[in-house]
Each structure stands twice: as C-alpha cells, then as structure tokens.
Amino acid sequence: MAFQDRSNALQALEAEFQAEKASSLRKLEVKLEETLRELSEVERQLRSLRTADRRAQIARHQALRKEAEHQRWCFMVQREACGFVNHDDLDRYYPLPPSWRE
Predict the structure, then answer these.
(1) Which residues have CB under 8 Å from 74's CB, separation 6+?
(2) How many domains does the chain have?
(3) Is 84 contained in some domain?
(4) Mind listing the UniProt keywords for this protein, alphabetically (predicted)?
(5) pLDDT tens by residue, the chain, 102 residues
(6) Containing domain of residue 35, as a range?
(7) pLDDT value, residue 3
(8) Are 89 and 74 in contact (CB under 8 A)?
(9) Is 102 a domain residue?
C-alpha cells in the first residue's frame, strides 16, 4: 500500500473516531437533559404535595438526582475524550439541584 493510501485511510479512520465521539457526547447530553427535566418535574410536584405520596416522591427525587449526577460525570468524561477540558459551563447549563429532604 502506498504511503498516500495509508495516510488517507488513517485520516478516514480518525474522522470516523471523531464522529463517533461526538455522537456519543450528544447522546449523553440528551440523556442528561431528559433526566434533569424529569427531576425538575418531581421537584415541582413535591412543592405542592402534602400526602403520603410525598415520601415516595422524595425517594424518586433522590434516585433521579443520583442518576443525573452519574450522567453528568459520564458527560464530563466524554467531553474530555473530545478534547474539552474546561467544565465550567457544566455548572451553568446542567446544574444539579440540591437533595430534597423532608
């Protein structure tokens, strides 16, 4: 195989890797956004909930928050894999709400 052919093959492979990293990053971002929206909805419900269901909703909130925290960490790791090392924007765009307690 000629040098130019190998170089082109490596460039194509690198482009494929970069596209896959970007796709993975977007999937993680969408999943995090969905979990944060669901978490926000549970918080909204908790503000008005005064029944026995409140305890179950608090447990749901805690579980969702833990999941969102994990998803955010995965998103941060994938950002680093894509070359983004500054994560200051994560706090601004994907803030985690405080834990909800009775």
Answers:
(1) 28
(2) 1
(3) yes
(4) Coiled coil
(5) 576 777 788 888 888 888 898 899 999 999 999 999 999 999 998 888 777 778 888 999 999 999 999 999 999 999 998 888 898 888 899 999 988 776
(6) 3-93
(7) 67
(8) no
(9) no
